[in-house]
Amino acid sequence: MICKFSVILESWAAMYAPISHDPEKGSKNKAFYKIRTINENSEFVRNQNMAKSPCMAYSVLIDAQASANKSVNYAHSIYFLARAKANSLAKNARQDDDMGESIQMELDEYAQDLLAYLGELKRTGRCPISGRVFNASEMAALRGINLDKAEWGSIPVKYAEWNILGIQLEQIAPRVICINQEKYNKHG
Question: Model's pTM, two decimal places?
Answer without folding.
Answer: 0.85
